[in-house]
Design a protein that fits this description.
- This protein has 13 helices and five strands.
- It has helices at residues 6-17, 27-36, 50-60, 65-75, 85-99, 133-138, 144-163, 166-188, 190-195, 212-221, 227-240, 245-251, 257-277; strands spanning 104-109, 112-118, 125-126, 197-198, 204-205.
- Helix 1 (6-17) runs antiparallel to helix 5 (85-99) and helix 11 packs across helix 13.
- The radius of gyration is 20 Å and the shape is globular.
- The relative contact order is 0.11.
- The model has no long low-confidence stretch (mean pLDDT 92).
């Protein structure tokens, strides 16, 4: 589990640099990879031996789980490679071989690489709420009260998950994402803040009346989140509609613990995208 052991970090650094291999990365390419992973103040390569240099950078930031996760996910993202999925899958297999001892795994869920934990038997992935959310949200949203409310939504969703209130946990997860995107879009976009969102048929929608589907569309249009992340969140958005008992009676979803863990996966992917593409405060 995080933080990763230093020996695991050294093995991962060797995989990333791939000395003598088909994907060998030069010093400037390592800089670019860290920047594309959304690292704050990514280090400049100093000309030293690449694998020890990269391992040193990872060890220095090993307490920053969000940045380490984003790097590992970027390493396994088809967008990183000219041949797309083929190279991404090769790196994911190599990375997972090094992460197995830490009981972690990079999985592809909804087309997006996402970090999960291995179950006790090591045969399946388990996803949980994103870690270090207090720090991560305050880097994106300036209003401290809003962040407090969002953190409380996550805490209550986790509590519901733990006691078996699975439907309420999923509703809470959806409301957290809606609050996150709504706050981020109104803080960062003056046009939205002053005049609201533009819906279908150019209809103006007040910020406090905009739905999650519209917010996901706008975040994608701004290139804050990838198409896969937007589509990945649609299931959570639909599940959130079970806040209305009529919808639950009609669909009878019968959510369980696994349903909740699967809903955390798109949240983690969406947050990673936001941290990669939205300038921190």
């Amino acid at each position: 589990m995080f933080p990763l052991d230093d020996r695991t970090v050294e093995r991962l650094a060797a995989v990333i640099v791939d000395i003598g291999g088909p994907y060998e990365r030069k010093g400037y390419q390592l800089e670019q990879l860290l920047a594309r992973a959304g690292w704050a103040n990514p280090p400049e390569y100093d000309g030293s031996t690449r694998v020890p240099w990269l391992a040193e950078q990872l060890i220095e930031r090993k307490e920053n789980r969000a940045e380490i996760e984003r790097l590992l996910c970027r390493l396994c993202d088809p967008l990183e490679y000219d041949d797309g999925q083929v190279s991404a899958d090769e790196f994911r297999e190599a990375v997972n071989a090094k992460l197995a001892a830490e009981r972690l795994v990079v999985s592809v869920v909804g087309g997006r690489p996402t970090i999960g934990e291995l179950s006790a038997d090591g045969k399946s992935e388990v996803f949980s709420a994103p870690e270090d959310l207090d720090h991560r949200l305050r880097a994106l949203i300036s209003d401290s009260h809003t962040v407090d409310v969002l953190l409380n939504r996550v805490s209550e969703s986790v509590l519901c998950q733990q006691i078996g209130a699975h439907t309420m946990a999923i509703i809470g997860i959806g409301s957290f994402v809606e609050g996150l995107l709504g706050s981020l879009l109104t803080e960062r976009d003056e046009e939205i803040r002053k005049h609201g969102f533009v819906g279908r048929g150019d209809r103006k929608i007040k910020p406090d009346r905009a739905g999650l589907e519209l917010m996901l569309d706008v975040a994608h249009e701004k290139e804050w989140i990838q198409l896969d992340a937007k589509d990945f969140m649609q299931t959570v958005r639909q599940y959130r509609n079970f806040v209305h008992p009529r919808a639950e009676l009609a669909k009878q979803p019968k959510f369980d613990h696994d349903s909740v863990t699967l809903c955390w996966a798109p949240v983690r992917a969406l947050l990673n995208d936001l941290e990669e593409h939205v300038k921190p405060i």
